[in-house]
Amino acid sequence: MNKGINISNLSIGYQKKTLIEAINVDSNLCQFISIIGRNGEGKSTLIKTLTSLIEPIKGDISVAGKLLFKLSEAEKSKLISVVLTNKISIHNINVFDFVAYGRYPYTNWLGIKTNNDKTIISEAISLCNINHLTTKLYTELSDGERQKVNIARAIAQDTPIIVLDEPTAHLDLVNKIEVFKLLKLLVEKHQKTIIISTHQIELALQLSNTVWLINQQKVISATPNELIKNGEIDKLFANTDVIFNPATNSFTVK
Ligand SMILES: Nc1ncnc2c1ncn2[C@@H]1O[C@H](COP(=O)(O)OP(=O)(O)OP(=O)(O)O)[C@@H](O)[C@H]1O
Q1: Can you give the residue ranges of the ABC transporter domain (predicted)?
Q2: Measured from the CA of 38, which atom of ligand 1 is nearest?
């Protein structure tokens, strides 16, 4: 066992339906990790298990030597922050206050924020380039704006690991690339470990350090180059009208 993320003999799924059995993956921290796979393969289920939104059927995950499922909620909230895809219907709250929610693991029950909390909130806002949005209502944001605000809230939570379920869903190409570059910056300049699920395979191959590829109930962890060279990316779309071109790292239609 190293001191990164160690997933051992993990089975995930819902009640009586096991989706994937015996996942064994070891990855280092301070990496950009993308989970890829076709629709319904279990990417979101793995994300939800990693973030304790659902319980594992079997197995363990350890992070930096600590068994995740044994940690208290308070300990987990200082280790992993989560950005999900579903719209949060939270009314009458502006962007600054929404990002400030990220400080909840560190404030008392009155939610009183210190100057240090306020600095961290402002830094998260600047990092995500959303200073112009701070007084806007959260419910009045566009999808692209909201996603950056959600990421700022996770940054304000100040955890070494940030997990995001399809962070670029509903975004145009420019915003998709902006979000990927922001996540990459968090890894390279702020020593975060970023784990995302994504259908943006080309971007994931270009920008991730590690890919967890799910195909036919198996999870493989490798670098993008390894997955391209050993044909695993090709296999993902076997018997479909999609072809992967390893020379350009892009997909074309047959
Ligand atoms: N709450 C649930 N209860 C039972 N089954 C579920 C539940 N949520 C998802 N599933 C099923 O689990 C399987 C995997 O779903 P999941 O959302 O994890 O896949 P995914 O890879 O993220 O898919 P997509 O790319 O379409 O978002 C699907 O067959 C789905 O119908």
Answers
A1: 5-240
A2: 25
Domain that holds residue 193: 3-253
- Ligand 1 binding pocket includes 41 (Cβ within 6 Å): yes
Which residue's alpha carbon is at the smallest distance from atom 29 of ligand 1?
Answer: 40
Pocket residue to mutate for ligand 1, from 10, 15, 19, most atoms within 8 A of Cβ: 19
For the complex shown, is ipTM > 0.95?
yes
111-134 pLDDT, tens digit each: 788 889 999 999 999 999 999 999
Stated pTM of the model = 0.95
The DSSP-derived string for 176-234 is: HHHHHHHHHHHHHHH--EEEEE-S-HHHHHHH-SEEEEEETTEEEEE-HHHHHHTTHHH
> Domain count of the chain?
1
43 within ligand 1 shell (Cβ under 6 A):
yes
